Amino acid sequence: MIKVLIVDDQELIRESLSIVLGAETDFEIVAVAEHGKMAVALTKQLSPELVLMDIHMPFMDGVEATRQIKSQFPGVKVIILTTFQELEYVREALTAGAEGYLLKAIHPRDLAAGIRLVHHGGTLITQEIAKQLIADWVTPSEQTKAAKGKKASYGLTEREIEVLEELSKGAANREIARKLFLTEGTVKNYISNIYSKLEVAGRHKAVFKAKEEGIIPPN
Fold first, then answer.
1. Could you give the 3-state DSSP secondary structure of residue 21?
2. Which residues face 5 on adjacent strands?
């Protein structure tokens, strides 16, 4: 039996996956989790063999949860299952140690087959995402290279960039938290980190410097 932990902040998704995958004779759904912190705790408590992990969740996102799980329990396999297919999310998830990256639109039969593949030592990403990764790796655009250089020079994470982009739109902390599936406290922490890394005080100065340095789009 393959012991599976399902992690998603939407109850409907958690229950649907539990029903669909629970019907497979070689799967055992050991638990479901609502966010990354719970996923890490349940992994420690229940020792699943494979974790199906969403990306955007409150308290702790799927990338950070994957990073912690793989650090503490390297034998546990992780498949990111999400609606997002932006390349930065793929890179972050794979860098964190995930063995698979799939979209929620996948057919249940293919998802089950993917779980078996990863459980037996394989890695799995969709053909479309693989092509995008290869294309960007072989011929990255000048804009992509410049942006990466600026982000790296200030040590900004992808999530901090997302928060910066929302700040540039004039969004309040509550709006940012709702859009990025975070708590307001977490958003405040990100903003504090941004100020520190950019060496500025205040939203307007942070946004101005980020645009001036090419970290976020000027408009």
1. helix
2. 31, 51
* 84-97 residue pLDDT tens: 666 677 778 888 89
User: What's the CA gap between 174 and 3, in Å, rounded?
Assistant: 37
DSSP string, 26-55: TEEEEEEESSHHHHHHHHHHH--SEEEE-S
pTM of model > 0.70: no
Query: Tokens representing 45?
Result: 């408590």
Note every long-range contact of 140-149, with CB atoms under 8 Å and residues 24 or more positions apart, other chains counting.
146/214, 147/214, 147/215
Q: Which domains does the chain have, with CATH numbers?
A: 2-135 (3.40.50.2300), 142-212 (1.10.10.10)
pLDDT tens across 59-85, in order? 888 988 999 999 999 999 999 988 766
Question: What is the distance between the alpha carbons of residues 131 and 8, in angstroms, rounded to a whole number?
Answer: 27
